[in-house]
Design brief:
39% helix, 426 residues, 17 strands, elongated, 20% strand, single chain, 5-stranded mixed sheet, alpha+beta, 9-stranded mixed sheet
Length: 426
């Protein structure tokens, strides 16, 4: 019989206990902050009808990056590459029953068929946070403030990340009104801008030249603007630019100061309609986008539902973990098991099991080592498994019902009754 490979699927991950501890820490922090801002958790199936993504996500993603197939009933289905269309479908399905503004978050796992690289895998988990029902920039203000608060909750400081803002409406004005491009040409320029960070400057300029021709230099000057007041008066005084400026002022008043303007921020999905943003790691070791999001007011209309304004963002667990590790923000993550009970002799294994049950009744997670290995070896195993405490049980402890508790990280020891041990571990 040929041996089956132990290699996992390319672009996916196995999660051993240490990786699960980090993921649990990230997810717990995401949930805590999202709920602090009033967001309720939701979830949808991992499998959706492919038409859901054809409608608004973008042809490149559907045709090149999805895991799509026909199910046994002949239906075209896709393993979700993103969560926003599913959330929009859920809102549309119960639109008449829901109370707006609606604040939802989710932590789905997502699949995209693309080349695995640093910070990007084929499977990842992602925090999605969305607010439905607000037409004005108070929604962008809240959602960007939430993203900012999430990073601070992990211990980050503002110099570790930067928030870059742009507007799809502003780009439509620049490309359509100011540069007088046809709709198809403007669409191609937008897609090109979205790929800019993945291209050489020469390749970008050559492709832009093929679309823009004589307007190339004017376009290049525009996208180099890092501040709204650097734009030509006609562009700067547009409604979209005014809206961006108001949002920037409101963010500063909320204490979010690490923001800047960047016309190259596009967001690849076709459903974005207004302000878009990305949050970047500023470390030279990890200069990549962490968060991305924006306004998508028309997405529910693919379901023939009334328009519902919406703003949201997503942040992946891979990029989040990279950010924490680069900035040394990963805390000491102990096992969920609080204490390992180690019997000195096999005849005390039963006593160890009874003691473990008493601790478990007090809501303390306990593991019991009933092997015949040496005590020192048992303690090393507990330490390797990131169990923070060890309780050694011998004839003296059984007779006196007083127990010695050792904290493995510090070497500190505590001796006391069962009630005192429970209090210490609690």
């Amino acid at each position: 019989m040929t041996a089956i490979s132990t290699q996992n699927y390319k672009g996916a991950r196995d999660f051993y206990p240490e990786e699960m501890r980090l993921q649990h820490y990230i997810f717990t922090t995401w949930r805590r902050v999202s709920e602090r801002y009033g967001y309720a958790e939701v979830m949808a199936p991992i499998l959706e009808f492919t038409d859901l993504y054809r409608a608004k996500t973008g042809e490149e993603i559907v045709s090149e990056q999805t895991y799509s197939f026909k199910d046994r009933g002949g239906r075209d289905v896709t393993i979700r590459p993103e969560m926003t269309p599913s959330v929009a479908r859920m809102v549309a399905a119960r639109q008449q029953e829901l109370s707006f503004p609606l604040r939802w978050y989710s932590i789905p796992n997502l699949w995209r068929y693309e080349r695995p690289q640093h910070g990007r895998l084929r499977e990842h988990w992602q925090l999605n946070a969305d607010i439905f029902g607000l037409d004005d920039t108070s929604a962008e203000l809240e959602i960007i403030s939430l993203a900012h608060a999430l990073l601070l909750e992990f211990g980050a400081t503002e110099d570790m990340f930067s928030i870059k803002l742009n507007s799809r409406e502003l780009m439509s004005y620049i490309l359509g009104e100011y540069l007088s491009l046809q709709v198809d040409a403007a669409h191609r320029v937008g897609k090109l801008l979205d790929r800019k960070s993945k291209m050489s400057d020469e390749a970008f300029i050559n492709q832009a030249d093929a679309i823009l021709g004589a307007k190339l230099e004017l376009f290049l000057d525009l996208i180099q603007s890092s501040k709204l007041h650097d734009l030509p008066d006609e562009v700067r005084n547009s409604q979209a630019a005014t809206e961006l400026a108001e949002l920037a002022r409101a963010l500063h008043r909320r204490g979010v100061s690490n923001i800047s303007f960047d016309l190259t921020i596009q967001r690849g999905f076709d459903y974005y309609t207004g302000i878009v943003f990305e949050i970047f790691d500023t470390s030279p070791e990890n200069q990549r986008s962490l968060f991305g999001g924006g306004r998508y007011d028309d997405l529910l209309q693919i379901f023939k539902s009334p328009r519902v304004p919406a703003v949201g963002f997503g942040v992946g667990d891979v990029t989040m973990a990279d950010f924490l590790q680069v900035h040394q923000l990963v805390p000491q993550l102990d096992s969920a098991t609080k204490v390992a009970i180690v019997a000195l002799e096999p005849e005390h294994n039963e006593d160890a099991l009874v003691l473990a049950d008493q601790l478990r009744q007090a809501q303390i997670a306990v593991a019991v080592d009933t092997t015949e290995r040496k005590v020192g070896t048992k303690i090393k195993v507990a330490d390797k498994q990131a169990i923070p405490y060890v309780l050694v049980l011998g004839p003296e402890e059984v007779a006196n019902q007083r127990y010695s508790l050792k904290e493995l990280k510090t070497g500190d020891e505590f001796n006391g009754s069962l009630e005192q041990v429970i209090a210490r571990l609690s």
